[in-house]
Structures are given as structure tokens and as C-alpha cells.
Amino acid sequence: xxxxxxxxxxxxxxxxxxxxxxxxxxxxxxxxxxxxxxxxxxxxxxxxxxxxxxxxxxxxxxxxxxxxxxxxxxxxxxxxxxxxxxxxxxxxxxxxxxxxxxxxxxxxxxxxxxxxxxxxxxxxxxxxxxxxxxxxxxxxxxxxxxxxxxxxxxxxxxxxxxxxxxxxxxxxxxxxxxxxxxxxxxxxxxxxxxxxxxxxxxxxxxx
Length: 207
Hints:
- This protein has a single domain (2-202), classed as Leucine Aminopeptidase, subunit E, domain 1.
- It is 41% helix and 20% strand.
- The chain has helices spanning 46-55, 57-64, 102-119, 139-156, 171-191, 195-204; strands at residues 2-8, 14-21, 32-37, 74-78, 86-91, 124-127, 163-168.
- The chain has a seven-stranded mixed sheet, with helices on both faces.
- Strand 1 (2-8) and strand 2 form a beta hairpin.
- The longest helix is centred in the last third of the chain and has 21 residues, at 171-191.
């Protein structure tokens, strides 16, 4: 199952943004996948453990040399046995009720991961849903922050990324991100009513 949407930085150089329901360790259409890691970068449960298992032991060896990663920051490694070229490791915030700068830190995860990609001339990136598993970040709010932050980054870096996608494992998560992306597109159309955007939204059933 796949949903495709596009953002534009306003220069005519468009970055495709899409949602895919599937397994991020099997994604082969991007140069880099993002790992929702813990601070040690030494593997764990969920997406983190799955990526380490699929990449093989050399990923752990390289991660050890990075000496961890702070919450909201991002670091790059090779992907080894994964079908992509690179893994961007970022550490999402543990939900603490919203009073520990969780929203800012989650936005930093997306922003810094994309900045690492741009700095290394990586033009296509796949994200999981960061912090919504064991870290208990509320799904709807996390999806809103993720979509808004990626959109903002793309607008600030026109022409530097070809594709950003979310690879989402279950239907509930997929639908949450789908809804937030659709809402953002409609909002953009309302504030900048171009005929081609309106026609596209009508065809996609967004308005």
C-alpha cells in the first residue's frame, strides 16, 4: 500500500514525499534509511533492533566508534547488508507528558537527519515513525510534527532532496501520517490557491 504526495520548495524543483506501509529494512528505493536509535547506538528493540539484525555485525562495530548520540541529534553510518547505502541514526525523545521539550526534540530528529543527508549529498531518505513505539510519544502529535518539520526543511532546501518517505509498519500508524500529510496539502492550497494544486487535490480526493 502506498500513498504519494509532493511538496515543492517554490522553485519548480520538487521533492516527492510519500507514505509506504511496509518494512523499512527492505526498502531499496532510497540511499539512506533513518534508524530510531537509542543513545548508545548499540541496537535495541523495535526498528532499531530490526535494522541492526538486517545490516549485520559490521553496523554495530561502526556504531561503537561513534560513542553514542544525544536526543534529537543524528549520525551517519554505512548500511552494510541493508539494500540502501547508508543509515542515519537519530535518537527520539521519550514521552514525559510534553513538559520536557519533547516536541522540539522530535522535530530536531527529522531536521538533523535531513541535514546529515544534505551534508553528505544523499538525495533520498526513508523514515520510520520516530518515538511512537517504546518511547510512547502520542501518535497523532508525532505525525503532525514529523510532516510539518519535513515540509519546512524541504521548503528551506529546494532542489537538495529528491525523495523523502515514511515507511510505516502498521495500518494505524500509516493512517495517522496519511491524515497529517493530507491536511498539510489542503492547508497549502487554501493559502496559495493555484489551479494545478486544486485539480490535483480534487483528483486525490482531498477536497
